[in-house]
Design brief:
The structure holds two protein chains of two kinds. Chain A is an alpha/beta fold. In chain A, about 40% of the residues lie in helices and about 20% in strands. In chain A, β8 and β9 form a beta hairpin. The chains are: A alpha/beta, B alpha/beta.
């Protein structure tokens, strides 16, 4: 039974999340402000933290940093802030995903599953399958419909990074930092070129990508299962 | 720009590069002499550009009948010239407006140094080119090196020909590219012999002298050097704008010292060349002594022109007041860190015997500088006459007070002295009559200056000799004592005259500078005391008209153009030509019209009224009579007046601008607050509603009965919250538009509190409320519905901001003629600085989405309603400084109301 910590100052929101998540089979912990939220995230051992950015006592972004400093529990941000800069900041600070309020419960549950699943995958790096593509992270082999696909070193690093956190948004800055190094953090043009090459090699219809999905203004996400569509 | 400068691009260099953006490019084909093939090269380059797809138009191309040049022109679009008539003759000039209207990529304009026929927009063609460039059109042009202003006198010395058409060096410096068209002198001479060089018949003889191998070699060297200097300058600009560390030479500064002799213009040009070669800034200085006022007008003109030339050539022109010229110059030089002084020296006329009072006149400035300028190089320019410039300043001489009057006074004074002398001699037997004559010399010196007073001294000398020395009535002198007396008299009289005349000149100088100061002071006082814009404008035109002894106007921008806003004498329109000059002055922020470089045929001179924010209007000046140029000191005074006027006008407009900006900012702030409030406060209930509703539909089957009920309950609560928000918005709109009027009735406050508490009880979260209302409180005249809303909002706030376990107190008492109602919580309280603004619309103590959900409207609505009842509302700290008390004061309408109400059923 996965444990989910809900950090939100609105009692009504906590109430319906408690009911819905509880009915779906999760155990729900609650915190009404940032400090108790961070404390609970570190002491109560939740499997996932749902964090509101607008908290009365401290900014949610700082809460992300505080949690990340001591734990790599998945963090799912729930916020009414819909601007890209807020999303990018939250993701860059180490949040795993971002859901803009208001949201339907279906979408939220899908994101919750993605976050929890990737946690399991992280534990056993091996194969990631999406569409007809299989990435064998251990042997560094990519096959599509059974046939092996040759990638350049950078293409492979980019794909491996996305496949390492399937279903998650990775920001431009995160990807560039990991694959190209800190000096190229702002060179999003590189990234566009390589993503385009990967799509040519992996997507059924590179013009309408369904596997490597663009999150406008934020980054990219590898879409793993059909249920998220 | 010191060597210690960091490796940062120099701001000046970057600015210069930036100011070139958007301007057309100017390429100049520079040659040493006519006939080297500049026009040909320009046409070839133009054809090249056209092959690359540019739109090329020839505005002026002089083929001088050369067939190969004409052949190149074939096929290029040529704009027809504008035909102008001047003194019965017709001239063809470039049609500037046609070029600007045609807007090609590149336009060809031959002979950059050409002087336009009077009546054109600008006196010079390079000014036309400036305007074309400013419009973003590229220009190719040609230039012979001898037309360069700073080389003007060098060329004259080499060739013996004074070139009248000159081009300011600045104009060439602004060229983006210079192509040197070089032809060895021998080839050029061969072309001349072959008749390939066009020369007008009347100029042939002069030209033959001009085209000597020696001259041509010298000119060629000049052209090469100009082009090389230019490469240097570009290199420097590049290095600076790219922050390449130099070994930068310590910055030099050159000072041109202008005298009242004829070297002034040459000094300016020499200083400019020296400065150019060293890449140094330079300034031109004139020291104004008391003698300045006694100078002939021609000399004053020359000084003014030299100062203007210095400004034109990119130097700084300064006038210093003082008596010791050399000391003033050296003071300034040290203050400005000058490394070289350029000064003129004209050998003075040396009489056979030394002028008796030359010590009074002092030595030449050059000599004094050479002796005292320790550590500063002095370059002495020796005297040669300056020629006339191409555009001499024409000015009728003001009628000086007639000189004969001084001499007549001298005669009269001596006659009176003789008469008095006779009387004294006869009745008192005065031993020495010479003092009486001395007395006559003094007033002449004070009133009429040096010459009449010396004349009076001589007359006195003769009179003394003739009337009072033995033998009487002859010019012979028998007594040697008398000889001594009259000789001493002459010496004393002349010295006295000199001193008295000097005092007079100094008084004159002081008086004129006092006049100037007084005029400025008077003006600033008048303008400062003027409150409205019209008063300021009136003060300006009145004062400027008085200073210029003519008329004046102020034009300010209105509806896209300029309009006359004030005039003295009152005037509300000016002719089209003057309007064009005014608009030019406004657009280019430079003087235009009469006596300036642009549209000089206008009747008015227009000066831009400049402030730090650019031109804010135009000042028009029209002097009476034919004088086109004001004397420099009046010109300067007017410039100072214009600056003050601009500031004064700006001050009046600034006040209204600031008010407008404040209102705009306030509106913007409200709008932003409304948006952020709406997005947060509408969304927060929506998050719960949407989440709960989607949970019900998605997970309905897996939920138990209680959960389903809870979710439905959430939806209901949050929908009600949303409804309250919308209600508040509506109330606020009605309050704002004045549609919310209290429908008052006699009401018991306790009833209103009761119904508000009942409504508040439905709000989520239980809350303890302590009621403390004086039972003796009379009935109040209120709108019960609106007042219940006030109480509800206050209770809602208290519930939202205070911890759940603390009680809320509602307290009411009678205080004098008012009923005072307080709603107090024990929450975090409101910071003192926010106690007033919490009643503003959309104000929230904690901005952003980290605040407790609310509208930011509740208290604003309360204030609106309470004030509509004639009451007041304020926020105060609670008991013992904890929490918040909202205090509502409502008027009690006399005992009639109570009586009436108690009688009511």
């Amino acid at each position: 039974m996965a444990k989910i910590l809900v950090v939100d100052d609105e009692p009504q929101i906590r109430k319906f999340l408690r009911i819905s998540l509880g009915a779906t089979g999760y155990e729900v912990l609650e915190a009404a402000d940032g400090r108790s939220g961070v404390a609970a995230a570190l002491s109560d051992g939740p499997d996932l933290v749902m964090l509101d950015l607008g908290l009365p006592d401290l900014d949610g972004q700082e809460a992300i940093t505080a949690i990340r400093a001591a734990s790599d529990v998945p963090i799912l941000v729930l916020s009414v802030r819909a601007e890209e800069t807020d999303k990018v900041e939250a993701l860059d600070r180490g949040a795993d995903d971002y859901v803009v309020k208001p949201f339907g419960i279906g979408e939220l549950l899908a994101r919750v599953r993605a976050c929890l699943r990737s946690r399991r995958r992280d534990a056993r790096p091996g194969q990631v399958r999406f569409g007809d593509v299989t990435v064998d992270l251990a042997r560094r082999i990519i096959t599509r419909g059974g046939a092996e696909i040759r990638l350049t070193r950078r293409e492979y690093e980019l794909l491996a990074l996305l496949a390492g956190r399937p279903g998650h948004v990775l920001t431009h800055g995160q990807i560039l930092r990991e694959v190209w190094g800190k000096a190229h953090e702002k060179d999003t043009a590189y990234l566009r070129v390589y993503v385009n090459q990967l799509r040519q090699k992996l997507e059924p219809d590179p013009g309408h990508p369904v596997l490597i999905v663009t999150e406008p203004g934020i980054g990219y996400r590898l879409r793993v299962s059909e249920e998220e569509a | 720009m010191g060597t210690k400068e960091d490796a940062r691009p120099s701001p000046d260099a970057l600015l210069e590069a930036a100011s070139r953006e958007g301007r057309g490019h100017l390429k100049v084909f520079l040659g040493a002499a006519p006939g080297v093939g500049k026009t040909y090269a320009m046409l070839e380059a133009a054809r090249e550009r056209r092959r690359d797809g540019s739109d090329v138009v020839a505005a002026v191309v002089e083929t001088h009948g050369r067939s190969e040049t004409a052949a190149l022109l074939q096929g290029l679009e040529t704009l027809p010239p504008r035909v102008l008539e001047h003194r019965g003759r017709t001239f063809e000039e470039m049609d500037l407006d046609a070029v600007l209207a045609r807007r090609p990529d590149l336009v060809l304009v031959d002979e950059l140094a050409h002087t336009n026929v009077p009546g054109s927009r600008h006196p010079k063609r390079w000014q036309d080119v400036e305007e074309i460039l400013a419009a973003g059109i590229d220009v190719y042009s040609t230039l012979n090196v001898q037309h360069l202003e700073s080389l003007n006198d060098v060329v004259e010395r080499i060739t013996g020909v004074r070139v009248r058409e000159t081009l300011p060096d600045d104009a060439l410096q602004r060229a983006d590219e210079i192509e040197l068209i070089d032809l060895p002198p021998q080839d050029l001479l061969r072309r001349l012999r072959e008749g390939k060089i066009y020369l007008p018949e009347q100029a042939r003889r002069a030209a033959e002298h001009f085209f000597s191998p020696g001259n041509l070699t010298a000119l060629r060297e000049l052209a090469l050097r100009s082009a090389a200097d230019r490469v240097d300058a570009q290199m420097l600009t590049y290095m600076r704008s790219h922050a390449i560390r130099g070994p930068w030479p310590a910055r030099e500064r050159i000072m041109a010292c202008l005298g009242d002799d004829r070297t002034a213009l040459r000094i300016v040009r020499t200083a400019r060349r020296a400065a150019e070669r060293r890449q140094a800034p330079w300034l031109a200085v004139y020291v104004e002594t008391h003698r300045h006022h006694t100078l002939p007008e021609a000399a004053k003109d020359r000084i003014a022109e030299a100062l203007r030339l210095a400004e034109q050539l990119g130097g700084e022109a300064t006038v210093v007041h003082g008596e010791d010229v050399a000391a003033e110059l050296l003071d300034l030089a040290r203050a400005r860190n000058v490394s070289q002084i350029v000064v003129g020296h004209v050998p003075k006329f040396r009489p056979l015997f030394p002028w008796p009072f030359s010590w009074l006149r002092g030595r030449s400035t050059a000599r004094a500088l050479l002796e005292r300028a320790a550590g500063i190089d002095v370059l002495v320019v020796t005297g040669e006459e300056d020629g006339q410039t191409a555009w001499p300043a024409r000015r009728p001489r003001p009628a000086a007070s007639p000189a004969w009057r001084g001499y007549a006074t001298a005669v009269a004074a001596c006659a009176v002295a003789t008469a008095i002398g006779h009387v004294l001699d006869r009745y008192l037997a005065l031993p020495d009559i010479s003092l009486v004559y001395l007395l006559a010399v003094l007033p002449v010196a004070v009133r009429h200056g040096l010459r009449p007073s010396i004349f009076a001294s001589l007359l006195g000398f003769l009179g003394l000799n003739f009337f009072f020395t033995e033998p009487l009535y002859t010019f012979a002198v028998s007594d040697s004592g008398n000889v001594l007396t009259i000789v001493f008299f002459l010496v004393v009289a002349v010295v006295t005259s000199n001193l008295a005349a000097r005092v007079r000149a100094q008084v004159e100088a002081t008086r004129s500078s006092a006049r100037r100061t007084a005029a400025l002071y008077d003006f600033s006082r008048k303008v400062a005391s003027a409150a409205t814009r019209d008063d300021v404008l009136w003060a300006i035109v009145h004062h400027v008209a008085a200073v210029a002894r003519g008329r004046s106007l102020v034009l300010l921008p209105r509806e896209g153009g300029l309009a006359v806003e004030a005039g003295y004498p009152p005037e509300d329109r000016i002719d089209d030509k003057s309007m064009a000059a005014a608009e030019w002055a406004w657009a280019h922020e430079e003087p235009a019209g009469r006596g300036s470089a642009t549209l000089p045929s206008s009747d008015w001179l227009f000066r831009p009224l400049r402030t730090g924010r650019g031109a804010i209007g135009v000042l028009g000046i029209r002097t009476e009579g034919t004088a086109a140029i004001l004397p420099p000191e009046e010109e300067r005074l007017l410039a100072a007046l214009a600056d003050q006027a601009a500031l004064a006008i700006e001050r009046t407009t600034l006040v209204s601008d600031v008010e407008r900006a404040r209102i705009a900012t306030e509106r913007e702030r409200l709008r932003a607050a409304l948006l952020s409030s709406l997005s947060h406060d509408l969304r927060t209930p929506l998050v719960s509603i949407l989440g709960a509703a989607s949970s019900l539909t998605t997970l309905g089957a897996t939920l138990d009965e209680d959960s389903r009920h809870e979710l439905a309950r959430t939806i209901q609560d949050e929908a009600e919250r949303l409804n309250r928000f919308v209600q508040n918005l509506l109330d606020m709109t009605r309050l704002g538009s004045g549609a919310l009027r209290p429908r008052t009735d006699w009401v018991d406050l306790r009833e209103v509190v009761g119904s508000a508490l009942e409504r508040a009880a439905k709000l989520p979260g239980p809350r303890r409320v302590r009621l403390d209302i004086d039972p003796a409180l009379p009935l109040l005249r209120l709108d019960p519905v609106l007042m219940e809303q006030v109480l509800f909002n206050l209770l809602d706030n208290a519930r939202k901001y205070a911890p759940p376990e603390t009680p809320v107190t509602v307290w009411a008492r009678l205080r004098g003629d008012n009923a005072v109602l307080e709603v107090c919580d024990q929450g975090p309280g409101i910071p003192p600085e926010a106690r007033e603004s919490v009643f503003d619309m959309f104000y929230r103590v904690n901005a952003g989405d980290s605040r407790t959900a609310g509208t930011g409207l509740g208290l604003a609505i309360c204030r609106g309603i309470v004030e509509a009842h004639g009451g007041s509302i304020s926020a105060q700290p609670g008991l013992h400084g904890t929490g918040t008390c909202i205090v509502v004061t409502l008027p009690v309408h006399g005992t009639d109301g109570t009586a009436e109400a108690t009688q009511a059923p």
